[in-house]
Design goal:
- With 314 residues, the chain is an alpha+beta fold.
- It folds into two domains: 246 residues, 2-Layer Sandwich (Beta Polymerase, domain 2), CATH 3.30.460.20; 47 residues, no CATH class.
- The protein has ten helices and seven strands.
- It has a seven-stranded mixed β-sheet with strand order 2-1-3-7-6-5-4, sandwiched between helices.
- Strand 4 and strand 5 form a beta hairpin.
- Helix 5 crosses helix 6 and helix 7 runs antiparallel to helix 8.
- The longest helix is centred in the last third of the chain and has 53 residues.
- The protein is rod-shaped.
């Protein structure tokens, strides 16, 4: 699918519709969503460019994230997508050439939909691809902030479960681990954007009037990074609290078994002595030997129990 924005005609979609009366000088944005081979060739021939493969877009080297030649800029980034409660990173390739933005992606992204609505509302003020790419990243930052807020709410809910639940199960620990992975993924995506914005400020192609907006977005990204760091620390504290409570519960169980073992040790000793059946054991012939042995067992257990009580071990 091809979507396009023209200065004169505004927003159009569909390959055939884009080709009708095509005026390249009026084009400011060509968006390729899961393009067919014919659509890819149309864009490549139209701008004399080469669209990258998914593997090339996902490379992590700085030169792969932002590169420029005499007449074009290539930006590769990952945009997070939320499906149910799962977060994934989808690669996006952006090419700026002749003041036109050519974007290439393989999945629908909320960021692009939000940006399209912004452009429709500010149609007269958006005149080139540089402004569109900044609008895309501005929408991306807003969405990442929303994701962080959602994760913060999940952390708060999980914290209440840890503090309220009497029976701690492994689902809570799995939930903490999942949130840690998600926060790490957001952190990586924010750092990815920081590298791109830093490269934009060094670029000679971006208009000077865009530098102030880029610096503002860099500050926003810095704030989001601080928030992710806070979330990391909170999750680590929550994990330590959970493991501490588990250890506490285990220690209580072990303590009970230890106390029970010690309480029954004296009776066991008495029973062992009188169970040896030696011939010369005067107690064996005592008329009150059996009840006295039982009484000695009870008293020894009671003495041990009383001792533990006084020591506050129970």
């Amino acid at each position: 699918m091809i979507y396009a924005f023209f200065r004169a005609r505004g927003y159009v979609k569909g390959f055939e519709e884009v080709k009708k009366g095509f005026q390249i000088e009026d084009l400011i944005w060509l968006d390729l969503l899961r393009p067919t081979l014919e659509e890819r060739r149309f864009a490549e021939d139209l701008f004399n460019i080469k669209l990258q493969s998914r593997e090339e877009i996902e490379e992590i080297e700085s030169s792969s994230k932002f590169s420029e030649t005499e007449n074009q800029i290539i930006i590769n980034s990952n945009f997070m997508v939320k499906e149910d409660d799962t977060y994934t990173a989808q690669p996006v390739s952006l090419i700026l050439k002749n003041n036109v933005l050519i974007s290439f992606r393989n999945s629908k992204l909320q960021t692009f939909g939000d940006t399209i609505r912004k452009i429709k509302n500010r149609n007269k003020t958006i005149t080139n691809g540089y402004q569109i790419i900044l609008a895309l990243f501005d929408s991306r930052i807003d969405l990442d902030a929303d994701y962080l807020e959602a994760i913060t709410r999940q952390i708060s809910h999980l914290s209440k479960e840890v503090n309220i639940k009497q029976d701690l199960d492994e689902d809570i620990l799995i939930g903490i681990g999942t949130l840690q992975e998600t926060t790490m993924l957001i952190h990586e995506n924010i750092v990815d954007k920081q590298r791109i914005f830093s490269a934009m400020l060094k670029s000679e192609f971006f208009p000077e009037e865009s530098y102030e907006l880029i610096r503002i977005m860099l500050k926003d990204l810095g704030s989001l990074l601080d928030h992710t760091q806070f979330s990391f620390e909170r999750l680590e504290f929550l994990q330590n609290t959970f493991l501490g409570l588990v250890d506490f519960e285990q220690n209580k169980v072990i303590k009970i078994f230890t106390v029970m073992t010690v309480i029954f040790m004296p009776p066991t000793l008495i029973a062992s002595i009188y169970g040896m059946n030696f011939k010369f054991m005067p107690e064996l012939y005592s008329h009150f030997g059996y009840p006295l042995a039982l009484l000695a067992m009870v008293l020894s257990s009671g003495a041990a129990l009383l001792y533990f009580k006084r020591k506050n071990w129970l």
